[in-house]
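Reopening: RDD family membrane protein YckC still failing for me.
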Amino acid sequence: MLSSATAPELPAFISDTPGLGRRMACWLYEGILLFGVVFLAGYLFSTLSQTRNALDNRHALQAFVFVVFGIYFVWFWAHGQTLAMKTWNIRLVDRNGQRVTQLRALGRYVLSWIWFLPPLAAVAPFHLSAGEIVVITIGWVAVWALLSRFHPQRQFWHDALAGTRLVTSLPLSR
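Support: Ran it again with your exact input. Result attached.
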């Protein structure tokens, strides 16, 4: 048996699901942090592709940013937390409370696009204004978030489909 002096320090977990307000605050903070990721990815893409106009190579840039986001999220989720999740004391684990594999994190990344793709696909044929698209997207995000109330453990449904769950993580005491 290992003594506490030689045992590796592991973060403490509380098995409960963080509240919806805290998860959505973390989600919003993550979106703010992603502005930096988008800026760096856009700069790298435009430098490598010698793109002078933002509308040139637009679809290639979108695909590049999608891949960069995937790398960002898969890397951090496989290690348990993104910076926003650390700030809000939220950790991603699998159904058994273990660290998430990169493959499972990739599956969660793909499934997490349920937050945005349905409203964007629904409004595409109607040529709506940007304001109308924002309202519809925010409405869908609110509905999707509230649907977590129907999950037995109050998890988001993309987490249930990916075999992951969000738990409260106690900060390490120093």
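Residues 1-10 have pLDDT under 50 and may be disordered. If you still see a failure, please send the error message rather than a screenshot.
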